Structures are given as C-alpha cells and as structure tokens.
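worker-3 :: picked Negative regulator of flagellin synthesis
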Amino acid sequence: MRALNRLSYMDIKQLGTTGTPSVDSKRAEQRAPIEREPSPQPAGKQDVARTQPPELELSAEAKTLQKAIASASTQPAVDQNRVERLRALVNSGQYPVDAQSLAKKIIQFEQQFKDR
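worker-3 :: tokens ->
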C-alpha cells in the first residue's frame, strides 16, 4: 500500500538538456516522414516509365498566360520617361484634372471593395 501512496516526480527543468530528450524532439521524431519502398510495378512497365517523359498539354488559357508573363518580364517595371513628363506637368500646375472623371473612378474603385 505504501508503494501506491508514494509518487515519483520528474524534474521538468531537465527536459531538453543534454542526455534528456525533450518533449519537442520526441514529437519531431514521431512526425518524421516514413521512407517507403517504391511499389512494385508489373514487368515491362518499369522500363517504359523510365525512358519516356510524362506527356503534358497546356490549356489555351495557360499558353496565353505564359506569353503574357514572358512579354511582361521583358518590359521595364516603370516608364521613367512618362513619370518625368507627368511630374513636370504637375509641378508646373499644367496637369489637367477632370474632376467628374476622377470622382467616377474613385466611386468605381470603392465599389469593388464594398461588394466583397
């Protein structure tokens, strides 16, 4: 009966120190990926799979997107000449602003976020 009443305590300060594996390292070991043997394939198919690359066909949308990305990557990110022209017009007070058009664009922009 005395053996049941006696509790043994573990010093948790020692966890993770040298010689005592920490709880986190034990969990990491449990989560480690299991290496599996490749599943056996029927005779004759192993050689074919190794010599021929898999076939891949892109959709029309994917091809268009590839072309757009390639085209955009060759263009400069900012048209510095246009920026300088607009900066000069704004600084000189000669940049025309259509208040009605600007207001419509602001409303359209805000509507995009309101509908979300």
